[in-house]
């Protein structure tokens, strides 16, 4: 039997893993400039953490979670998203006592058993940020600015920022009843999926990308026009501060988030280069979540972004023009004594932060040179039994083709990290 990766998962091979490393380095760099610190939570949690926070009636909880029972019979779930885990950690470790405002970010895999398609896998990767402890509109703008700045740093062009307000526990319930009445009138014109959502959570119908749904909803009332005074003032402040920072945005009155814990500000960052599934990142405010999970009332706001989708956009926009960092030095050694010397020199170079490799397949000099050329190495150090006796090695510049012979004592000084061509 030949094993293959499970449907909806994929291997990230060495030919592309360097891109992931580059992206993660950029993300961490931007997060640190905004004073966000990394958090890493377990890959699985108690199932009730997600069903309680995300919502029993959402597609994620009802259809997509990887849930299992461990040997003690406890129901556990592979994390389908990170906000609930981050807020759980915030409560469990009493982080609010360490700082009134906690700014966290994460990078890692999530799991949802949905239909695999472009940019959507069953094991997928996200980065995101959570700012917990303040309800002022400026923090919303800070988090939006962080998301925008991250894509700018990654070289992603032509992104679109869309914002909306999804209200709060005061103004959302009466709006949902109003929305349900309007949608019921056009029920026959809605898609089968939206008809199901209408009975379960009418707000999710607004999320539909179906043309028939969009046409049927042309005249429905929008939540942003039926906000309570508090939510209306909050939303107005967010828009004013975004404008003051010259962060361009589009208002989208039908923008809702797919998770039940969102309140007030909701936003998405889109890219037309992704086609129909155009969302790169999405987030919003969740002022009620901490209390829902058993903690003290603590407001928060955050966003999550898919790394697979980021990679798709980066490939289309050719954001990786600088390429992978190449191996600096290859030792072409012939004979046991030469191999021992090469291994010792390679180890010393690595200790100094210089990448080095040598042959472990006992190949001929010609084959070793072909290997160095395949790996696009800049310099090859050639040493055989005669070179060991005379304590001199030949160094070849693979780019220019020039060669020179130097003493063993000179080899290391020629390749100090500050003088090594990248």
Write a short abstract of this structure:
This protein is of the alpha+beta class. Helix content is 39%, strand content 21%.
Question: Could you walk me through the main structural features you see in this protein, from its secondary elements to its overall organization?
Answer:
By secondary structure, this protein is of the alpha+beta class. It is 39% helix and 21% strand. It has 16 helices and 16 strands. Helix 1 (14-33) runs antiparallel to helix 6 (137-153) and helix 6 (137-153) crosses helix 10 (229-244). It is elongated. Mean pLDDT is 91; it is low at 417-422.
What labels would you give this structure?
422 residues, alpha+beta, five-stranded mixed β-sheet, 16 strands, 39% helix, 21% strand, elongated
């Amino acid at each position: 039997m030949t094993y293959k990766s499970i449907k909806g998962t994929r291997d990230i091979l060495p030919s592309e893993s360097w891109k992931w490393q580059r992206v993660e380095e950029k993300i961490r760099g931007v997060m640190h400039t905004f004073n966000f610190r990394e958090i890493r939570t377990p890959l699985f949690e108690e199932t009730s953490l997600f069903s309680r926070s995300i919502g029993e009636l959402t597609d994620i909880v009802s259809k997509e979670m990887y849930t299992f029972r461990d040997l003690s019979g406890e129901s556990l779930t592979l994390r389908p998203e990170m906000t609930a885990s981050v807020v759980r950690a915030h409560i469990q470790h009493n982080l609010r006592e360490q700082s009134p405002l906690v700014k966290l970010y994460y990078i890692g895999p999530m799991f949802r058993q949905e239909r695999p398609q472009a940019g959507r896998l069953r094991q997928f990767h996200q980065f995101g940020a959570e700012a917990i402890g303040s309800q002022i509109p400026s923090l919303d703008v800070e988090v939006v600015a962080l998301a925008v700045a991250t894509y700018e740093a990654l070289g992603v062009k032509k992104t679109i920022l869309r914002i909306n307000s999804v209200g709060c526990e005061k103004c959302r319930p009466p709006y949902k009843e109003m929305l349900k009445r309007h949608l019921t009138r056009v029920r026959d014109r809605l898609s089968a999926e939206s008809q199901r959502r209408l009975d379960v959570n009418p707000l999710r119908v607004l999320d539909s990308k179906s043309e028939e749904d969009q046409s049927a909803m042309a005249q429905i009332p929008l939540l942003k026009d039926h906000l309570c005074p508090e939510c209306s003032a909050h939303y107005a402040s967010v828009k004013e501060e975004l404008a003051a920072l010259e962060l361009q945005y589009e208002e989208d009155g039908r923008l809702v988030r797919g998770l039940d814990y969102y309140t007030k500000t909701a936003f998405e960052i889109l890219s037309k280069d992704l086609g129909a599934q155009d969302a790169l990142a999405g987030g919003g405010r969740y002022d009620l979540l901490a209390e829902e999970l058993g903690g003290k009332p603590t407001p928060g706001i955050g966003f999550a972004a898919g790394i697979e989708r980021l990679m798709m956009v980066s490939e289309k926009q050719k954001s990786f023009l600088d390429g992978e960092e190449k191996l600096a030095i290859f030792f072409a050694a012939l004979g046991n004594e030469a191999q021992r010397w090469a291994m010792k020199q390679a180890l010393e170079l690595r200790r100094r932060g210089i990448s080095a490799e040598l042959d472990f397949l006992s190949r001929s000099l010609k084959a070793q040179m072909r290997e160095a050329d395949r790996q696009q190495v800049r310099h090859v150090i050639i040493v055989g039994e005669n070179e060991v006796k005379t304590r001199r090695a030949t160094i070849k510049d693979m780019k220019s083709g020039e060669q020179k012979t130097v003493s063993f004592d000179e080899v290391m000084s020629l390749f100090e990290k500050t003088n090594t061509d990248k």
